[in-house]
Design brief:
This protein has about 190 residues and is an alpha+beta fold. It has a single domain (about 5-190), classed as Sortase, Chain: A (Beta Barrel), CATH 2.40.260. It contains two helices and eight strands. It has helices at about 5-50, 85-90, and strands at about 65-70, 75-80, 95, 105-110, 130, 135-150, 165-170, 180-190. It has an eight-stranded mixed barrel.
């Protein structure tokens, strides 16, 4: 009689298999949800551009698309959401500013390091970034990339400064999310 054919061992094998399936589903859920959300958000963004401001990506959404962030060198385009809550960050990068995106010159976007802002680790000094809002399109060049310890330094929004700041948790390969470190990318308008 094989060791795996005894009833106790079959139950153990079944339990281990079930646990592996649950852990695999949990690991894949966030990236899958983020990808599906971007498809729905693109649809709502097109509705916004067609004259329906605040078009919701799904009926129960408490956020909407406010901009599109493009990174031409990497071939990326990300829908940016209003409201920088943890719930919204699960669906895409978010606008940190309380002021509407078209009413401020100093724009800060936040995103998760393991989904929508994973590409920040691949940016280079001088890379072109494009932010498209319902009323205009603006190009920026990456000028600074740095690690910021939020226990010692806070980002300040200053409407007298024209810049685009992208921020995510750091390090990119940390086993747990959160922590005090942020990777901050600062870009200035191409004309400056």
């Amino acid at each position: 009689m094989s060791l795996l054919t005894t009833p106790g061992r079959r139950w153990i094998l079944a339990a281990v298999s079930l646990a592996a399936a649950i852990l695999s589903f949990d690991a894949l859920w966030i990236p899958v949800k983020a990808g599906v959300a971007q498809v729905l958000l693109k649809r709502s963004w097109h509705q916004t551009l067609a004259g329906n401001p605040g078009a919701k990506p799904w009926p129960w959404a408490d956020t909407h698309a406010v901009a599109v962030l493009e990174v031409p060198r990497l071939g990326l385009s990300k829908i940016v959401l209003e409201g920088s809550s943890g719930r919204n960050l699960a669906f895409g990068p978010t606008l940190v500013n309380a002021t509407p995106v078209d009413e401020t010159d100093d724009r800060i976007l936040s995103g998760h390091r393991d989904t929508h802002f994973h590409f920040l680790k691949d940016l280079r000094d001088g890379d072109l970034l494009k932010l498209v809002t319902p009323s205009n399109s603006r190009e920026y060049r990456v000028r600074w990339m740095e690690t910021v310890d939020t226990r010692q330094q806070q980002l300040v929004i200053e409407d007298g400064i024209e810049r685009l700041t992208l921020m995510t948790c750091y390090p990119f390969d940390a086993p747990a999310a959160g922590g005090p470190l942020r990777w901050v990318v600062t870009a200035i308008p191409t004309e400056l």
